[in-house]
Amino acid sequence: MNGDRERDESGQFEAEHTDDEIIQAVRLNEPAGTQEVADELEIARQSADYRLRRLLDQGRVEKKMIGNSLAWEVTE
């Protein structure tokens, strides 16, 4: 699966989706669960969680608890 993906200068695999694609997946499902974002982009839940937390650190999305579930919303 990862055999065809390019690595960056630090040896990390380059992202399959842009930040804007992640944000669009959140918008389509808002408030979006992590699994919903993962399903929309056909990536692993862990990958979606990592990317969403990076966007959270950048202030581009926010998270909130809805019941016992974490949900994401776009802040732009």
The ordered H/E elements are: HEHHEE
What are the segments in which pLDDT stays under 50 over at least 5 consecutive residues? none
Query: What share of the residues does DSSP label as strand, in percent?
Result: 15-25%
For the record, give the distance between the C-alpha atoms at the N and C termini, rounded to a whole number: 33 Å
CATH class: Mainly Alpha
What summary fits the major beta sheet? 3 strands, antiparallel
Specify Rg, calculated over alpha carbons: 13 Å
Mean pLDDT: 88
Helix content: 40-55%
**Strands of the biggest beta sheet: in what spatial order?**
1-3-2
Specify the CATH architecture: Orthogonal Bundle
CATH topology: Arc Repressor Mutant, subunit A
Protein name: Putative transcriptional regulator
InterPro entries: WH-like_DNA-bd_sf (IPR036388), WH_DNA-bd_sf (IPR036390)
Characterization of the model:
42% of the residues lie in helices and 18% in strands. It is of the alpha+beta class and 76 residues long. It has a single domain (15-74), classed as Winged helix-like DNA-binding domain superfamily/Winged helix DNA-binding domain (Arc Repressor Mutant, subunit A, Orthogonal Bundle), CATH 1.10.10. A 3-stranded antiparallel β-sheet has the order 1-3-2. Helix 1 (19-29) crosses helix 2 (34-41) and helix 2 (34-41) crosses helix 3 (45-57). This is Putative transcriptional regulator. InterPro entries: WH-like_DNA-bd_sf (IPR036388), WH_DNA-bd_sf (IPR036390).
